[in-house]
Each structure stands twice: as structure tokens, then as C-alpha cells.
Amino acid sequence: MELYQRLEVEWAKFNDLDPRGMVACSSGTAALHLALECLELPPGSEVIVPDYTMVACPRAVTLAGLRPRFVDCGPDLLMDDGDPMGNAQVEPYSAFMAVHVYGRRVDMDWIFSTAGVCHAVVEDLAEAHGLKPHPATDAACWSFYKNKVVAGEEGGAVWFRDYDRAEAARSLRTLGFTEAHDYTHRPRGHNYRMSNLHAEPILDSIYFYEENLEARRRLEQVCDGECPDRWRMPPREVPWVYDLRIPGLTTGRQAAAVGALREAGIPARFGFKPCSSQEEYRNPDGPTNPNAYAAAREVIYLPLQPGVMTEALARTAFRLLRGLLPDLT
């Protein structure tokens, strides 16, 4: 058995899934793209995507010949469960892409009750390793990029509830080769293979998951103790990163704060910029999701990766932030 095939078995076991549906691939973006290709939505169908997420999500939609429809986030930065569609009708052939942003669980029962007329639901667990996919999810996707909880240098995986779709994805990840391997290719195949060299460190990372998670929880507790109550975000099911939200923070002061943290050796990051603010998806009529745009100005996050973040660096980070932003604490 090749190492990437062993990873498929072990990652399925880790997630309490049948390995027949698991397909390893080259990245999390490739996993999302393969999911959408193999779910066979009609060309041009809409996929409902959170506006506050990584641009890989709508890019996968575009690559599959579909159209992203962006919805706003709530205070927890997840897809807003108040009125996500703005009273608009969900098209019968739309799909939902549910993203567990920053390790915080989306209410999947709500997703399925909202998506009742949708063709499919894709679950993006790239930032939430350890959460199990919803039993009704049509395709679940993961990234193993080096900053993830289970990680190598790069890689991804997609699991399909329909195992025939998993077989189609295995073909598409290898340029659409048929079983005969006679250089007859299925349409829309890609070079999305995972190498054994990439699979090996990801396998090792699975075995150390509990130890890694415990170290991240300890760092999270230190951050909780240092973070002003006003900045604290709702709990995370999986401590991928420590996100904080500073009400009233402006874009300029956010950049200054992130710059100061990085100068101090703390690899702080900006929160996501809304997908609808990116050049390729920009709405000519202006922003339509105010919560996502406000979060883009106010959110900063710190890594919780052992070996990258330490308790001393976490304490330094909050000391610097409180000193830089005393009026916002």
C-alpha cells in the first residue's frame, strides 16, 4: 500500500468514516474543487459560501464552473444563522459550503434545515481537525498545510458519502485517467495527486494529535487569561488559532498592531478579508455583508502551533496590544 493510500485509511479511521469514501489530494483547495466537480451540480449553479472565509473556498467554486453567492457572518465569524439568504430564495440546484472558521463549529443541523432544497452540502474542516463531519454531509474536505493541526508541508483530503463519487475523484485527481490507463482521459481531470513524501509527515501528525491538541489548549488558556474580556471571541471546538476581535479597531491601527507583534517575533495574522472584497468577486454596487467587512478591520489572530507560539510570546503579545490600544480595551 502506498503511503498516501495508508493516509486515506488512517484519516478515515480518525474521523469515524468509511475509507472507501476518502481521497487524498495535493491541497485543501484541490479537495474543495474535487468535491464540487464530483457532486455534479448543473453548470453555473450557485454555491452559498460564507463571505468571511479563505478565498480558496470561492476559488474552488469558480474552478468547478459554478457561481459563489456570499452570505454574511455573525458575531462568531461563522455563516450567519439569523437570515443568511436575506430572504432570497435558495435555488433548487444550489449547494451550501459550510466552513468551520478558526476551529469554531458551524451549526450543521441549521445548515441542513436551511439547505433542504439544495443539491448538496460541502463541509470545509480545514481549520477544525478533530470535528467529525455531519452524517448527512455530501462531501467533507480538509487541508494538511503546515499551519494546520494535523499537517505536513502541504496536502488535502476529501471524503464522499457516495463512494462512486470518491472513485470519480480518484480518477480526476490523476488527470482523469481511466482504469485501463491507456491515455484515454475523463473530462476535467487535474494533477491533484498527493505524493508519498507529503503523506508521511501527515501520518506522523495524526499519531501525535492528542499531544498537539493538549499543547494548543494550554496556550489557548494562557491567551484567555491575558485577553481583555471585550476582545474575547466565543470558544473554539478546535484550538487551531486564537482569534480576538477589537471593537472600534480601524484598518490602519490593525496594520500597526500586527506589524508591532511581528517585529516582536510573534507571527500574528490579519483576519480574513471578505471574499466579496477580492478583485475577482467584487460587487460593483459596493459591500453587501457589513458584518464580514467590520470583522475584517477588527479581527487579529495568533498562532497556537507548538514550536511557533509559546506561553511567554502569548503574554508578550497581549501586553503589546494593551499598550498600543489602551482606548479600546
Model description:
- The chain is of the alpha/beta class.
- The protein has two domains: 3-206, Aspartate Aminotransferase, domain 2 (3-Layer(aba) Sandwich), CATH 3.40.640.10; 209-328, Aspartate Aminotransferase, domain 1.
- It has ten helices and ten strands.
- It has helices spanning 3-14, 28-38, 56-63, 108-114, 163-172, 196-207, 209-226, 251-263, 290-298, 311-324; strands at 22-25, 46-50, 67-71, 95-99, 120-124, 139-143, 156-160, 241-245, 269-270, 299-303.
- A seven-stranded mixed β-sheet has the order 1-7-6-5-4-2-3, sandwiched between helices.
- Helix 4 (108-114) links the parallel strand 4 (95-99) and strand 5.
- The longest helix has 18 residues, at 209-226.
- It is globular, with a radius of gyration of 20 Å.
- The chain starts with a helix and ends in a 5-residue tail after the last helix.
Rg over CA atoms: 20 Å
Shape: globular
- H-E order: HEHEHEEHEEEHHHEHEHEH
Termini separation comes to 55 Å
Q: Please state the second-level CATH architecture of the largest domain.
A: 3-Layer(aba) Sandwich
Number of H- or I-type helical stretches: 10
Largest sheet: 7 strands, mixed
CATH class of the largest domain: Alpha Beta
Number of domains: 2
CATH superfamily of the largest domain: Type I PLP-dependent aspartate aminotransferase-like (Major domain)
CATH topology of the largest domain, anyone? Answer: Aspartate Aminotransferase, domain 2
Beta fraction of the residues? Answer: 5-15%
Main-sheet strand order equals 1-7-6-5-4-2-3
Low-confidence stretches: none
Mean pLDDT: 93
* Strand segment tally: 10
- Helix amount: 25-40%
Strand pairing plus helix content: what structural class?
alpha/beta
